[in-house]
UniProtKB/TrEMBL annotation:
Residues 83-295 form the Smf/DprA SLOG domain. It comes from Actinomadura graeca. This is DNA-protecting protein DprA. Belongs to the DprA/Smf family. InterPro entries: DprA, DrpA_SLOG, WH_DNA-bd_sf.
Amino acid sequence: MNAERTARATLTAVAEPGDALLNRIIDLSGAEAAIETIRTGRAPHDLPVTAKGAQRLDHWRIRLATIDPDQDLAVCDRFGGRLICPGDPEWPTTLDDLADHRPYALWLRGPGDLRYGCLRSVAIVGSRAASPYGLRAASDLAADLADQGWTVISGGALGIDAAAHRGALAADGSTVAIFANGVDVPYPASNEGLFAEMARRSLLVSESPPGAAPNRLRFLIRNRVIAALSRGSLIVEAEARSGALNTATWARKLGRVVMAVPGPITSRTSVGSHKLLREEGTILITRAEEVIEAVGLIGTDLAPPPHTPVLPRDRLEEVTRSVLEAVPARGSSGPAQLAARAGVDLSTVNAKLGLLAASGFIERSPGGWRLTRQARAPK
């Protein structure tokens, strides 16, 4: 493995993901030279470093002494993982949109190809404390998208994230989890079975090396990667201060599509989603076809109109239907009254009444003809 790759593996352990100062150092001198900058504390001459930047360099220098990239790479190799770096065939070029906040490298686990999978991908994220409605919506939308060849990207968290991953897997589709910890660390532990299945069939991704534990900051930082890898982010449920809204903010910054699923107006878990829907540019989503239309190719991925249920009375020809409409919703009427209401002659009404009775729409009563119970039921 070349020195540049080893240096990038080191940097994923030394610094927090997506640090702007470190990325600028890498841009100016490369990953190997960035390690030397950290070791000596001397930044490139044409890169001004603030007092806070100098503090970060000191912090990285102290941490550098404890890092063993060869050990990290060996552990990764043992569980069948891999490290990908900018310029590799599997590196998604959409990450370059993050500029100074792009990852230094990515640790992967699973057979999926990250770059190929992200060509047609949608992020589905939302509340950890999701409602049954939100879980069902996330699972169904993910399954429908996966069934049509779209990769579902999420964060592996409880609630909406896990439902989205499971929906995609249920449809034998592709799904990618972006971790805030090492790809060998099942967090949350209750999703361990889900992560094992994803490692077997799909893909787990992290900016941190194997064994890295999650922290609160990294959960927010990884949202930028979720947004950058996908064509658009769909917020299924989000509370007023949900991390999913941070993903939507990054998606907007990166010029990606922002979508949201409406929920009950009384639901706390949909407050954030409804806030998004009031903002210009957010697309309201109720089905997978609308997602594909929003993020797909213009003129190719248009959503078909929703199917309107076809009721038995819709199949009746015009005159027969007009006679049926003349039968009152309550009570009954004789043939003469029905003929007047329908605007047809009595012989025609009598013929149509027999047809409607045979079809189960109407029945005889002491006062004439009335709707059957089935025909009176609301449609």
